[in-house]
Amino acid sequence: MATPTTEPSGPADLRALLRDEPGVELRPMFGTLAALVDGHVFAVAMDDVVGVKLGPDALSELAAAPGSGVVRMGDRQMKAYRSLPAGMPSAERRAWLLRAREHVASLHA
User: Fold this and answer.
1) Could you tell me if 32 and 52 are in contact, meaning their C-beta atoms sit under 8 angstroms apart?
2) How does strand 24-29 pair with strand 49-53?
3) Mean pLDDT of all residues in 77-99
4) Torsion of CA 69, 46, 50, 40, to 10 degrees
5) Local confidence band at 4 (pLDDT 50, 70, 90 cut-offs)
6) How far apart are CA 102 and CA 91, in angstroms?
7) Burial of 12 (0-12, 13-18, 19+ CB in 10 A)
């Protein structure tokens, strides 16, 4: 009998945090689950990590949170993205995701 596979926590978290958010599209992209606004990626979920794309000031702010790191895709560092710490409360994780959405939307307005 086959053992059911479970989805890594990153994609499941991203889906749960952005489930009903208007204007957000979730879709598979480059082996990850990506969250897009107006066709532009503002968050990614790989394995057990959710990463957000932010401007320099917000990146520095999130970098100060224990457990946050630069997001990696394979051996490539995605320096515009920081991971949300695993122990961060859901409301705070959602706030960072919405902040990332606003940042990316402003870049393409």
Assistant:
1) no
2) unpaired
3) 95
4) 110
5) low
6) 17
7) middle
Among 51, 53, 52, 45, residue whose Cα is nearest residue 7: 45
109 pLDDT exceeds 80?
no
Q: Provide the token pair at 1.
A: 């009998």
Show the 3-state SS of the chain: CCCCCCCCHHHHHHHHHHCCCCCEEEEEECCEEEEEECCEEEEEEECCEEEEECCHHHHHHHHCCCCCCEEEECCEEEEEEEECCCCCCHHHHHHHHHHHHHHHHHHCC
Token pair recorded at residue 106: 């402003």
Residue where the block lists tokens 């710490």: 85
Round to whole Å and give the CA distance between 55 and 106. Answer: 11
First to last CA, the chain: 52
Percent of the chain residues topping a pLDDT of 70: 94
